Amino acid sequence: MRVVFGIDVSKVSSEVAILVNGEKVHNYTMSNDAIGFSRLLGDLRTVHKPEIIFEATGVYSRRLQAFLDEHGYAYTRLNPLEAKKQLDSLRVRKTDQIDAEKLAQSQFVLNRKPTYVQEEVYQELRDLSRFYQNLTEDIVRAKNRLHKVLQVTFPELETILSTPTGEQYGNLVVAFPCKDFVLDLSKDELSESIRQSTSKRISDKRVAYLAEKLIALANQSYCAVKKTSPMLEEVRYYTKELLRLSEQRQTVLDQMVELAQPLPEYDILLSIPGIAETTATSIIGELGDIRRFQSANQINAFIGIDLKHY
Fold first, then answer.
1. Fold of 3-118
2. Which DSSP string corresponds to 120-182?
């Protein structure tokens, strides 16, 4: 007797279809929580070696996958492109919704192998990689917002260093959001502020150069708002947020490198010209254990690329 559980995962609940030797014997809706999973576990335990198949739906199917892993059940997880292509090959109409029963029925024809369960380190790297990407997007937004408000208060300050990024630049912007904060200080006070702007050692010659440049930029600048304007607080806010996000992103990258270094593929990826630690760890995080793929087409299917369109 062959029993297949097809599970169509949605945000709050999942549809479960149970087929025995190709015939549907039961279907129901379960909640995606401990109560719903307990009901599913009860059904699974009545069957010897059940086949479980579901479509990956991002964060929504993650809990189901973790539940099945915890209880030692093998499963077949399909990405949306893979599921669509397989059901298309079975002549399921393209307008039909891919539901739990269709997934289960297709398993009797396609006889898919269970999904390879990776070591936990690969899931952790994926989570960190996604966190890193989100932080990068937040950094870009913060940079754009800072640039916008600086155009009103002190646009010349963006040229104080070779590139308007990093710890020292951020601290200088916080200290001098408009020209008045430069011109109100004596040269000695200005020099001390510059020294405090970086945690690195800075020579007297470099301090003097930056002080002179700051004064020149301040004399050149025309601030569109008063020294008491709330826009100056906005400048400081986005700058501090940018510094915080950048520090958090570096922490995440350090964690990714620490996890990836013991993996054999890490050094191989680093040996490829143009690939540094950020790219290497991100590739591992997104692809996972590449040894589970038997061909390039399997990698394409996992990523969700249909090369016929390119």
1. Nucleotidyltransferase; domain 5 (3.30.420)
2. HHHHHHHHHHHHHHHHHHHHHHHHHHHHHHHHHH-GGGGGSSSSS-HHHHHHHHHH-SSTHHH
